[in-house]
Amino acid sequence: MSDDLDARILSAHDRNDRLALITLYTEAADIANDLDATCFFLTYAYIFALETGAAEAESLHARLVAHGRES
After folding, report:
1. What is the Cα–Cα distance from 41 to 48, expressed in whole angstroms?
2. φ, ψ (nearest 5 deg) of residue 55
3. Domain membership flag for residue 71
4. From CA 46, how far away is CA 6, in angstroms rounded?
5. Total structural domains within the chain
């Protein structure tokens, strides 16, 4: 993960900006170098999507299912 993305994630946490966190953790998942890291970031994006009722929850869940991390 880039330093810039890490800083943006930390800033979003500081602001409690859960909608931004969905996007940022999804971005981190998309650029992760291995499946475990990808699924780690997808899980956080999914949790924030569920908490906010965001439409992205469905696609994030599907990605986790596709990787065998969710049923």
Report:
1. 11
2. -60, -25
3. no
4. 18
5. 1
Q: What span, in angstroms and rounded, lies between the C-alpha atoms of 66 and 43?
A: 13
Distance (Å, rounded) from C-alpha 33 to C-alpha 66?
Answer: 17
The pLDDT value given to residue 56: 97
Quick: pLDDT tens for 15-39.
Answer: 999 999 999 999 999 999 999 999 9
Specify the DSSP class assigned to residue 1. -
Q: Is 19 a member of any domain? A: yes
Give the global pTM: 0.94
Domain with 50, as residue range(s), is 3-66
Calculate mean pLDDT across residues 51-66.
97
Tokens representing 59 are: 């696609």
Query: What is d(CA 34, CA 20) in angstroms, rounded to the nearest whole number?
Result: 23
Q: Is residue 32 part of a domain?
A: yes
